[in-house]
Amino acid sequence: GQVIRLSDYRPPAFRIRHVDMRFSLNDGHTDVETVMEMERAPDTDAAEPLVLDGDALTLIALDCNGVAIGAERFEATPDRLTIRDLPPSGPFTLRIATRLTPETNTELMGLYRSNGVWCTQCEAEGFRRITYFLDRPDVLATYRVRIEADREAAPILLSNGNPGEHGDLDGGRHYAVWDDPHPKPSYLFALVAGRLDVLTDTFETQSGRDVDLAIYTEPGLADRAAYAMDALKRSMVWDERRFGREYDLDVFNIVAISDFNMGAMENKGLNVFNHKYVLLAPDTATDGDYAGVETVIAHEYFHNWTGNRITCRDWFQLCLKEGLTVYRDQEFSADERSRTVKRIGSVHGLKAQQFPEDQGPLQHPVRPRQYREINNFYTATVYEKGSELVRMLATILGEAGFRAGMDLYFARHDGDAATIEDFLTCFAEATGTDLSQFALWYDQAGTPELYVTEHFEAGRLTLSLRQSLARGAAGTGIEPMHIPVRFGLVGPDGTDLAAEPTAGTAEVEGDVIHLVTAEAEVVFSELAERPRVSILRDFSAPVTLRHEQAYEDRLVLARLDPNGFGRWRALTDLVGEALRAASMAGAGRPALDPRLIEAVVACAAEERLEPALRALMIALPGEAEIARLVGSNVDPEAIHQAREGAIGAVATAGAETFRRVRDGLERSSGNFSPDAASAGRRALSNALLMYLSAADGTPALAAEAFRAADNMTDRMAAATILAHRFAETPEASEALDRFYADYAHDPLVLDKWFTLRATVPSDATLDTVRDLAAHPKFSMANPNRARALIGGFATGNPRVFHQKDGAGYRWTAERLGELDRLNPQTAARLATAFRSWRSFEPVRQEQARAALSALASRPELSRDLRDILDRTLS
Ligand code: HT7
Ligand code: ZN
């Protein structure tokens, strides 16, 4: 495949000012007519031909200024249209007609049909599957779209912008026109048409403009969009208050679609969503689903300013919109829910997803310098690490400085296709700060290590800090970066000392040490006694912390660090290290120190801590996380045994406390409400149920909880305990059968059932997943279902996926080969489950290599999957 490089960026040779499109939707084919108002860019060669992007297109007609272009002047292939001898200067119009078959579009890029509904997905390069175009984000145009369809088949006709004229046509057909006055790149184009129900509402902006809000769903499901609508209105208010950003069209439409490659898409004025991130009911959705909807609704809405009004110059700048928008949605959730709990969740996700990516064969800088398939760069590094860079900027510049930089960015670049340099320049200018060293974070791949040592003598504490970054596959010159290190010195009573540094080589501002050199020191004097050092609070930089700290001090911090995040980290790091050691030592070694067990148990009962935080503190790291801590020569079986041993030990030691706490919680819960506090109580209650079931050694408690559950969170938690811990019991099969019988008609719940069965850590599961792939309700063509089964198994069942005989790898690789023929983007994404294969012990490594090589040897692979396999194997 061809490599696209950032260094090859050239501005477009032609401009497209305005686009007028007409869609005629019919069963079996769609006709598209596109009229573009164009001109040559100044200072370009007047003889240069126009080269438009296409992908699997059929050209029906082509003319310029109303005159057909002769065959000798153009060349059309499915993926390119080259036109010569266009006017050397001045505006001209180009008309292009294409014919599409959305019914056979299984890739779900461009125009496709999902359950009869026509819909589009254009990011990153889907618009070129609709018409020939300059399909790149730095070509911005206004759009007018006329959609025509059978009124029965598609009573609803939607596109970007504001609604215009509409009416009836002969033969039972009708039409609607949409006008988008905001110039936009083609990747933000959208069209939806079909039989849809709608939930409507209104919103008054801060300047007093009324916006009509609508969420469209498949028939009969609009009432399930109520929480999404509420989240949308809260997002709109928040963006006005926090960033002064107001919505800019008369309507804001959201459509929930069943077949969708990712979470959602921020098309201007017409967001299209995976229905998983819209549809909720207490009986079908977990608290995690509610939180996910809130996050994704907010994320797509926030894109209206960070992504749409200001877009990306090229796809290398993807983090400009994604990292920034993730930062914004994280801040929104922190404000709406619990800041500490939200931060722990984000850091947990970063370590689970981004760290392995940054430390394996798929490593790349937050702003990549090259790609072969852009769809493979919608990664945890671009999104999550990208958001951490924005967070560091906010930490370094302070709240007011950060806001001043954002204000300047919005004012200066509204309507632009911008770069990371443009973005950083706004913060540098608004605050008078030199950010050239900070910019290295965008270009240097890998997770820096931060080494911290302490020395205390005669009332004097010296903190020594050192940073190092391994030269990775994507490495450039490795220069020291600007690492903001938030810290606290915790006194014996569990409060922070108000100590100011008295000497040292690093600048300290409030509670932040600015490490800008490879090594530095900070000294605090005249301390009455040795404080406990709580370092990298709130995870102030995306680094691996190597803090040489006394075990006793860490136990103390796990009990009384006044910073909730610091406390969680102190405890879970101790537990993680103990499990790492136990996994590496092999069977027979007790996993946890009794004092650590006691600390975990004590957290469960600590009334000062909100229940959601307690649930996080008592959760043991997952098997994948322990594998990451082990790092090399990983044996997943040993990890499984060590973790099970630790669960047993905590369960036995804590049984009484856990029962008492859980009984107290249950009494205080009433009718279902998805709010964060209620969700936190359910999380704690279910975490305790797991331990109590383990202590009891029988499925009785979980079976009772399953029967009594009046919401999906509790039902799922009980079913998971039964299926995972009591797999062979009648109670487990009864629950799984009941679950299926009750929800077989509901695709989003059925996905949970597929995942639940695929993640059972038992020897029988390989046969189960084989059966499930042949189940009448399984469909490779539906990405959610494929992810539920294949992704659930490959990323949610380490013990069986990494089975020593390689059967788990082979089954997965074969399914990916099948999926690739239908939906390359989803196949490529699922293939990243193999990214850490080199960290396993030699026998498994060899099995993984063989399975991957067999898949890679297929001649007909997509560019998407081939790119992932080549990089994974390289
Ligand atoms: N900007 C979107 C990313 C995206 C996408 C979404 C749906 C299907 C295919 C897609 N390719 C890229 C989603 C977001 O970050 O908000
Ligand atoms: Zn996004």
From TrEMBL:
Keyword Protease set for record: yes
Peptidase M1 membrane alanine aminopeptidase domain residues: 227-438
CDD domains, A to Z: M1_APN
Gene3D superfamilies, alphabetized: 2.60.40.1840, 3.30.2010.30, Neutral Protease Domain 2, Peptidase M1, alanyl aminopeptidase, C-terminal domain, tricorn interacting facor f3 domain
EC number: 3.4.11.2
The keyword Hydrolase appears for this protein: yes
Domain Peptidase M1 alanyl aminopeptidase Ig-like fold positions: 446-547
Catalytic activity line of the entry: Release of an N-terminal amino acid, Xaa-|-Yaa- from a peptide, amide or arylamide. Xaa is preferably Ala, but may be most amino acids including Pro (slow action). When a terminal hydrophobic residue is followed by a prolyl residue, the two may be released as an intact Xaa-Pro dipeptide
Domain Peptidase M1 alanyl aminopeptidase C-terminal, chain residue ranges per copy: 552-873
GO biological process, one term: proteolysis
Any one GO MF annotation of this record: zinc ion binding
Listed name of the protein: Aminopeptidase N
Lineage, opening ranks: Bacteria, Pseudomonadati, Pseudomonadota, Alphaproteobacteria, Hyphomicrobiales
